[in-house]
Amino acid sequence: MNKTTKASAENAQKDMLKAIFYCLLVVVIIRSFVVEPFRIPSSSMVPTLKVGDHIFVSKFSYGLSLPFTKFEFLSFAQPKRGDVVVFLWPRDESLHYVKRIVGLPGDKIELKGRDILINGKLVDKSQVNVEDIDREDKEEPEVPSEYYSETLGSVSHLIRYLSIPVAGHEGRELTKVVPKDQYFVMGDNRDESADSRSWGFVPRENIKGKAKFIWLSLDQVGAWNNLRKIRWSRCAQLIQ
To answer: Residue 3: phi, psi to the nearest 5?
Structure first.
């Protein structure tokens, strides 16, 4: 190999390394400041989110934080009632949870059976006929359930209760005042969600971002060689 050929090969290698570095840098910037993907591992947010849904979370809906830290150096807005958020679980920050914000700092939250009162005002909800719920929006296999359309702030969404309540379910009757800079969150699958009713509030600094849309949804039962493995009707679906 002559000197010219050797130099060309070294330059090509350097260009490739630079390209890889810049690609990795772009990925880190996007994941740190723009969007981050998450996979839904449990049924606590059914029917809004199902096991196997892959979602994008907006990192800049509320502000910008230093990568791999909870330090927010620029704040755009505060989480709103009804937002679906991904956060670090206060009891073990190695775990990510996804829930819906029900109570804001300073709110008085009262739970009376299936009713929620926020600052003395009953949260509006109306029962939806099970037959009107798309099968794709139900959990598989289906268990006897009751669905409601609930309105939190400006957000209307579906929630689910089991027709036969879970014995000993925590938080059926309680009253709590949300502390400063903390939030009261609940899963949309109300009888099968461990949330603020049982383990407490979510600090603002633990909230990583707002869940924006489902980019891919995979059936956990179907085989990969089956086209039905992908739940096509849920792909590219906005999260309400």
So the answer is: -60, -40
3-state helix, strand, coil in the chain (%, to 5): 20, 40, 40
Instruction: Write the DSSP string, 99-161.
Output: EEEEE-TT-EEEEETTEEEETTEEPPEEEE-GGGS-GGGS-SS--SEEEEEEEETTEEEEEEE
Would residue 16 count as lying in a domain? no
Q: How far apart are CA 66 and CA 218, in angstroms?
A: 32
Closest CA to 203 of 111, 70, 22: 70
Assigned domain for 145 exists: yes
CA distance 87 to 114: 25
- Whether residue 170 has pLDDT greater than 50: no
* Contact yes or no for 144/162 (Cβ under 8 A): yes
Among 50, 59, 99, 210, the active-site one is 99
32 catalytically annotated: no
Whether 13 maps to a domain, the answer reads no
- Residue 206 belongs to domain with CATH number: 2.10.109.10
**Is 212 one of the catalytic residues?**
no
In what helix (H) or strand (E) does residue 207 lie, and over which residues does it extend? strand 207-217
pLDDT tens digits for 30-70? 555 567 889 999 999 999 999 999 999 998 889 877 766 77
Residues of the domain holding 45: 37-238
Structural domain total, the chain: 1
Domain-embedded: residue 102: yes
Q: Rounded to two decimals, what is the model's pTM?
A: 0.82
